[in-house]
């Protein structure tokens, strides 16, 4: 089986391979050999030595409503799109943009249709009483 990312994420090693083998018209070579930035990278989970980090990753990746706690296998990967900085950094070492929680789809809604609250004031603007 392909190394899938977390639940609901369609990124996989297979997808990355496909991208690598696709042709880059900018650099006139396959993307494997050009300097284009990968759309994502697949990272292994932290090992047991980094128990705390590992725990947080697992917690973030798991679905809220999951009954069984999911444990990453040795081949389990998470892609870098789930990190706020595009990769684990000191500031954002954990996957926070995790699709496993099922709410990413709704989170992508444009916030345009948010209703504006209007306040009708009785006193006109620029009215000063001193
Ligand atoms: Zn390129
Ligand atoms: Zn992913």
UniProtKB/TrEMBL annotation:
PROSITE patterns: ZF_THAP. Residues 104-130 are annotated as: Disordered. Residues 107-120 have a biased composition (Basic residues). Keywords: DNA-binding, Metal-binding, Zinc, Zinc-finger. Residues 20-98 form the THAP-type domain. GO terms for molecular function: DNA binding; zinc ion binding. InterPro entries: THAP_Znf. This is THAP-type domain-containing protein. It comes from Patella caerulea (Rayed Mediterranean limpet).
